[in-house]
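User: Please run a holo structure prediction.
Assistant: Happy to. Please share the sequence and the ligand.
User: Here you go; the ligand is guanosine-5'-triphosphate.
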Amino acid sequence: MEDTENQYDGLDLDEEELAMMGEQGAAVAPVSAPGDVPDDFRSGFVALVGRPNAGKSTLLNACMGGHVAITSPVAQTTRKRMRAVINRPDAQIVIVDTPGLHKPKDTLGRELNRAALAELADVDVVAMLLDATKPAGTGDAWVAKHVDESRAVRLLVVTKADIATPEQVQAQLEAGNAMACFDESLVVSSTEDFNVDSFIAAVTDHLPYGPRWFPLDMPVDASDEELAAEFIREKVLLNCRDEVPHSVGVLCDGIEWRDDGLASVRATIFVERDSQKGILVGKGGSMIRRIGTQARLELEGLFHRKVFLDLQVRVKSQWRRDDAAIKRFGYSAEQ
Ligand SMILES: Nc1nc2c(ncn2[C@@H]2O[C@H](COP(=O)(O)OP(=O)(O)OP(=O)(O)O)[C@@H](O)[C@H]2O)c(=O)[nH]1
């Protein structure tokens, strides 16, 4: 069903809320002292915003040249703001991946929207992503309205050029530019590495002169536990269908860095109903074993060592309507 404007009623943050959230984001302090970087060093933050499935996390990964943010064909994959850092001799670019803006059905959905919108208040550049293969709708117009109100430099990025026709790309460029006043428009394919460099260059050109905000050895601002939980959730999304993906929350209960070089990771996958637990565990444990194997291989790549993964599945009824649970999972706007 096509989104209609009034489905988003009550979602807009007022100025006070935005200012408050902007201040929280601004709590990052520079790590480089004056003189550590050249006078013409550029640095700052670019937020990727757009509807679910627009390709935000995939573009972030393409910019980073690796698997940093989780992606899947399931809408609303991203639940945590993810900041990834590109370091160049002339610039430091902090890319902020945000949850897809959508019509929320529960407290979690509302928190995800709040988290995404809050980023608009506190970045230097906003890149609004539009999927070239999906006709722009009122949901995109709603996102564009917020982008238009942002004080940041605005980029329109039409994504998935590899699977769109030239006509679709052109139509999306026109639709996007009709919805908001953009400073620049680009067409990319993140999976085919088409124009990803141009995107980074465009962002860099619009960043102010400034210090480094993150140390050179910190490509993402997430802890090992947070990354482990997200990569496990990604494997659940890739293996499960229907209602299970949206009901899944993952908590990493701990990582032990053992003397024998092995990382022992304990994590719990939460679902909302017994029936979902049954699907997730699978016949004779086949599904959870598959998810565990895929997640373990991913974590071995991430941690550069062998991983022992202990996965539990538990039921927590209606956690998506529970503020405290949403906070505990780290999916809240107030991180
Ligand atoms: N062919 C193609 N597919 C893409 C491209 N970019 C993203 N995709 C696919 O589109 C789907 C959604 O991509 P994501 O990067 O997870 O989208 P997102 O905007 O982060 O989604 P949310 O987390 O729901 O907000 C995934 O299946 C990606 O593989 C692209 O350039 N080309």
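The domain at 5-206 is CATH 3.40.50.300 (Rossmann fold).
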